[in-house]
Amino acid sequence: MREKGLLIVLSGPSGVGKGTVRKAIFSQPGTAFEYSISMTTRLPRHGEVDGVDYFFKKREEFEALIEEGKLLEYAEFVGNYYGTPVDYVRETIDSGKDVFLEIEVQGAKQVREKFPEGLFIFLAPPSLTELESRIVTRGTETEEAIKGRMKVAKEEIELMDLYDYVVENDHVDAACARINAIVIAEHCRRERVAVLYKKMLEAE
Length: 204
Ligand SMILES: Nc1nc2c(ncn2[C@@H]2O[C@H](COP(=O)(O)OP(=O)(O)O)[C@@H](O)[C@H]2O)c(=O)[nH]1
Ligand SMILES: Nc1ncnc2c1ncn2[C@@H]1O[C@H](COP(=O)(O)OP(=O)(O)O)[C@@H](O)[C@H]1O
Prior knowledge:
By secondary structure, this protein is α/β, with parallel strands linked by helices. Helices cover 47% and strands 20% of the residues. The two termini are 20 Å apart. The model has no long low-confidence stretch (mean pLDDT 92).
């Protein structure tokens, strides 16, 4: 019997395709995950809606949330804060639903420390050359910033050992299929272990 939901954390270097893969997963009909909408101090981009894409906050508001312990994790990324609301995550998991976080690696590290029972998935590029070309194609960075991103990306890739699974993002559909398969397998494994454990206790 399923009790609590899973906390699924998708992370990986900037430009690997986390946002793209997450959007593809949530556009699948009947997806069973609940997306945790993050808080951020960055300005909304054209077409982004407060409370849908992010909860957009002023810097003072975000710092107050940190002080009040309202964030499961937070990180500063390219000059802006990003963080995960802890109450939403806990309430949703307690209600038996799986929560899906798509966050950068510093935040994922904090979640690992606070919530080790989470399911940590590292999205990896097929190669560093491909990662660089994705950042270039996205067109959001200057040449100088791309060099900086690549340096950080190499350091981030070294952290992939800390994850439960590494998924290559060669093709978006293939990466989504792998993530869905991992979640199904983890549910089976965890439920099986829990059921066996319960049986053993009952037999005492
Ligand atoms: N630590 C952390 N990172 C987040 C959170 N929400 C989004 N991010 C990451 O912040 C980075 C920047 O996101 P965004 O400004 O939407 O730009 P993007 O580069 O187009 O995805 C991405 O790597 C996201 O995965 C969060 O709640 N916590
Ligand atoms: N499997 C893929 N193959 C080719 N391009 C991809 C793939 N996944 C994502 N991209 C492209 O790579 C760029 C970075 O993706 P994005 O989702 O913004 O990355 P992240 O959220 O990890 O920073 C985007 O231009 C996106 O369209």
